[in-house]
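Hi V.,

You were right to ask for the full record rather than a summary. Here it is.
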Amino acid sequence: MKVRIRTLTPLWTGGADGKVDRVHETGILGSLRWWYEAIVRGLGGCACDPTQHKHELSGERLRQYEHSRQKGKDWWAALDEAGICDACKVFGATGWRRRFRLEIVEAQTTLVWRPADQMLNVRPPGRTRGWYLPPGSAGTLTLKFTGDPKVLSLMAALLLFLEKWGNLGAKPQLGYGVFTIENRDETLEWARGNGDDKPGWEWKILGDREVDENLPDLRRFGFFKFRFETTQPGWWTQVPGLNRVSLQIQPIVSQYQIVPVSPVLKNEWRFNQWNRKWGDDREIFGTLRPDRIRSKVTVSWAYRDNGMWKVRGWAWLSSLKWADKVWDILKNGHVWQTVLNVHGRIDTCMPTSCQDVLKVLEEPR
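Predicted structure:
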């Protein structure tokens, strides 16, 4: 199965030394697994924390798996009986290899700017350091999947969901990884199925496990998308923080039709809209010191798509203590319009139950 994607915002996959020399499969695989785990949990299923190595196929589990296979069970059902979680079934665990192979072929991407180690420092008013953005890659590339047909159909369904609401690669908190699928009909055929060679994938509720606040679960996610049109090509020069680096941004806008608005929006949400009496802002928006905490709020760069500017993102609303407060800020259209100095509309999606998650996954593709 081949899925041809085009980046809408820069793609970041890094490398062994943290530099973008090319698009790395490992960066794509990591994000695919992370999102699939969140989906499985959102459907009430079991997705272990892969860093804990709880689901190794060895010892009694291996004996149970072999026994089930001898009884005629397929590998998926046999792993069920052996107690291997749904994520490890697909992406592998100790003693069980990943059920598919991913290669990046026909990559026609370039760095958004050079040199590769040069950061774009967006510093909104009132900030002494601001945000440092690495270049990332833009262009088209083809993801070539080989392996079990059932799993390939799952990958197609997963990518269709990520195209609409998620991201590929790393650094989504800085606005990276938004993409569109160019061979949509072929990908849809894999997801929906057309026979034995393309069996299709059906999302379904997997159980009734409760939410674990420490692990991503789609029942605690909110998704948002802001759209706007403007007749002013230089609208972004009026956004506080971007005008200071306009000479660096102008070539990026001209060539790729993208604008790095994510630092400006996150600055407004964190320092002007959030009230610290509601909770520790570092837990929500992240920090580097003393211990690194990844931001639970992501927002993309602005990108031009089908004649309209769009900005989208998601939030992992892990704690009920502050979830409603954060969500009220993120979905406030007035804040969006004031910060970006444009008129637009915001669409949101916030599943809170397994049934809600299923509806989101089954939305017309």
